[in-house]
């Protein structure tokens, strides 16, 4: 918190705050700290509140939560039929990483809340304050943190235990316990233990023009010798970097590209704190594979459910190939159109090496 920005290395690989422990051995710190009966974290501060005054009337309040570990989903959290194609992968979890920053943002206008944003994996969800999806109690929203991933949702499912019981009794997953995301995946979350982040938090003010962070609480007089804003300007990774392919802890799913361990996240400064709407301005970016999976799931099961597996796989391959080829063709055409034509400003262009030879009169044809 005091001097993290000293680790910044402009133009070089980002510094990762790497754990000394092997996370596959489940060290004690990996489990975090449980809140007490009042929702306060004892002997720990895991939240940061940053207030951004967009105008004299409009204020965005960001509530950041730091978790020591993010456990990605396993193959049971992949929607069918893609889950069957990928297989169980020995029950491993994929997309896990040391260190995790999640957040909510509440937008205020003239002191009244008007909307709320929930961070979820690579994207998120946003709602008007009075939307039926938002769970309020005493004027404060309840946020449900997903099992393992800590993605934020406005309501709970039945939770992993209830989902397991339902699956044992019926042979299928209770859809009411699922929180879908990224088209082909889903999370589980339930009420769990109540945690009030503002009871154990640092409070700051961010100027949207200069991006200067000012500490509000603890106040300057409380800890005058500490620079609590340094963490904000640290541009490295909060956790381990992605493990190398030859690391025995690493595992990659063929074709799909899922990795067991990925790099940890960057900090709050990289979460789009100055934004026009409730979503970050650059949200929603997807690669070709994600677009193809989303398109396939949009048509399943209406069009693909009765097809054989190999036919479905062929369709996916064709869609991906078309997207790749179309993208390259479009990029090439865009580049050509952007370059345009350049006019040569020459009065006379000599024709070199051309001679005139008279063959005499010719008869008309």
Describe this structure in words.
The protein has 365 residues and is α+β, with helices and mostly antiparallel strands. It has one domain (5-285). It is 18% helix and 21% strand. It contains five helices and 13 strands. It has helices spanning 82-86, 159-170, 230-233, 288-299, 309-339; strands spanning 47-53, 58-70, 97-109, 112-120, 123-128, 135-137, 140-142, 144-145, 152-153, 179-181, 185-187, 201-206, 213-217. The chain has a seven-stranded mixed beta sheet with strand order 5-4-3-2-1-12-13, with no helix packed on it. A two-stranded antiparallel ribbon has the order 6-7. A two-stranded antiparallel sheet has the order 8-9. β8 and β9 form a beta hairpin. Residues 341-346 have low confidence and may be disordered. It comes from Cordyceps confragosa (Lecanicillium lecanii). InterPro entries: Vps62 (IPR009291). The chain crosses the membrane at residues 310-331.
Offer a few descriptive terms.
about 375 residues, alpha+beta, 7-stranded mixed β-sheet, two-stranded antiparallel sheet
Arithmetic mean pLDDT: 81
- Which residues form runs of ≥5 with pLDDT under 50? 341-346
- Oligomer state equals single chain
What percentage of amino acids are in beta strands? 15-25%
Helix content: 10-25%
How is the biggest beta sheet arranged? 7 strands, mixed
Query: How many runs of DSSP E, i.e. beta strands?
Result: 13
Distance between the termini: 93 Å
Q: What's the domain count?
A: 1
- Read across the widest sheet, the strand sequence of neighbours is 5-4-3-2-1-12-13
Number of alpha- plus pi-helical segments: 5
Q: Kindly name the structural category.
A: alpha+beta
Radius of gyration from CA coordinates:
28 Å
Order of helices and strands: EEHEEEEEEEHEEEEHHH
The shape, in one word, is globular
Keywords: Membrane, Transmembrane, Transmembrane helix
Protein name: Vacuolar protein sorting-associated protein 62
InterPro entries: Vps62 (IPR009291)
Transmembrane segments: 310-331
